[in-house]
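From the methods appendix. Each design record in this collection lists the tokenized structure first, followed by the designed amino acid sequence. Records were kept in a plain field format so they could be parsed without special tools. The example shown here is representative of the layout used throughout.

RECORD:
FOLD TOKENS (371 positions):
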């Protein structure tokens, strides 16, 4: 049965018969800007190539036909070994994809490529050979290297700025303390107020610098993934805030938990500390309880940090973005980096951080079970 498209208004008749399919293949094969090679089914020798091969490898089709495909590879891997890799991948997923592999031009220079190998079959599913699609990714790799260099320069710049700001802030705080201690009796009320404000501003700058350093190191750190006892993690976080919570009359509860999971211990503690501290900071006068709990899904370990404080406003739903602080944060010390650090830690663990659906303020930290 033939399929016919409506003629007129830019439409033409379409006839999907076998000879038309072959003609279409030849057209695509010739016009494709990536290198296309057809390999013999058994020997993997090159039997056909398209014009783009000349542009990429500087070999003409006449030069390559009859040559083993390995002549274009930059490594010394034996053809039989490469063939086994290809066959194994084709059996599993129907094709073989190499995301980055070094190949060799005619003059011997090596350059990065990505290429796909897929079997060619006739209408009876009989093997006709192999189709190889090779793409030169030199420009992509160069751009990636440039971006990596830029990122490294920005990181060094950020560390340098943090270091210089920290030294200046320490000096500023020292001068304010020195002035208050040595000459405080000579200062009027306005002078005393200025000293206090300088101290407060110095503390806020130092807090921001420390959080910025933590955020940068969190993004760059290599995780030390190991088996950790979640009950011990909960107890560590509880011990850290027990005095503050008791002073404010807040109940800090953690479950009896014997769960073992794979994670970076210090990163997980830092994330839960940030979430607990966030609850203490923003819970308001009505805050009475902060609870940590755990649930497991098929894919993730999910840790909840919930409080009965003032709750999140609609505008607060974007607080995981850097330096983003909700309207309820006005007047509360902070750098807008705490939840951003939690977000990075979650991402490093193959998970995420989200806000729970209930009326109470709840943060859900998920960690992949496949680490």
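DESIGN:
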């Amino acid at each position: 049965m033939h399929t016919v498209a409506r003629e007129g208004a830019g439409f033409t008749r379409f006839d999907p018969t076998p000879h038309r399919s072959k003609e279409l293949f030849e057209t695509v094969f010739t016009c494709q800007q990536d290198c296309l090679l057809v390999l013999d089914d058994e020997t993997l020798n090159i039997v056909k190539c398209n014009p783009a091969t000349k542009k990429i490898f500087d070999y003409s089709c006449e030069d390559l036909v009859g040559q083993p495909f390995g002549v274009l590879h930059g490594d010394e891997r034996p053809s039989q070994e490469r063939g086994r890799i290809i066959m194994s991948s084709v059996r599993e997923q129907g094709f073989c994809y190499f995301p980055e592999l070094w190949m060799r031009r005619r003059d011997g220079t090596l350059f990065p490529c990505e290429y796909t190998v897929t079997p060619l079959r006739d209408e009876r599913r009989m093997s006709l050979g192999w189709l190889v699609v090779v793409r030169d990714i030199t420009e992509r790799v160069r751009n990636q290297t440039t971006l990596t260099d830029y990122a490294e320069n920005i990181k060094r710049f950020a560390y340098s700025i943090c270091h210089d700001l920290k030294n200046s802030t320490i000096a500023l705080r020292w001068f304010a303390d020195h002035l208050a201690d040595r000459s405080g009796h000579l200062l009027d009320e306005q002078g005393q107020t200025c000293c206090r404000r300088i101290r407060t501003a110095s503390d806020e700058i130092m807090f921001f610098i420390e959080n910025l350093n933590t955020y940068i190191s969190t993004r760059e750190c290599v995780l030390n993934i190991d088996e950790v006892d979640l009950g011990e993690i909960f107890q560590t976080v509880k011990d850290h805030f027990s005095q503050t919570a008791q002073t404010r009359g807040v109940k800090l509860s953690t479950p009896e938990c014997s769960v073992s999971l794979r994670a970076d211990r210090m990163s997980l503690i830092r994330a839960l500390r940030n979430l607990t501290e966030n609850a203490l900071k923003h819970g308001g006068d009505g805050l009475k309880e902060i609870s940590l709990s755990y649930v497991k899904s098929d894919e993730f370990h999910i840790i909840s940090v919930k409080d009965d404080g003032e709750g999140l406003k609609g505008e607060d739903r974007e607080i995981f973005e850097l330096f983003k602080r909700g309207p309820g944060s006005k007047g509360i010390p902070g750098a807008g980096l705490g939840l951003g650090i939690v977000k990075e830690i979650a991402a490093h663990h193959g998970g995420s951080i989200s806000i729970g659906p209930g009326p109470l303020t709840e943060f859900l930290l998920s960690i992949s079970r496949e680490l």
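APPENDIX NOTE: The first strand starts at residue 35 and ends at 39.
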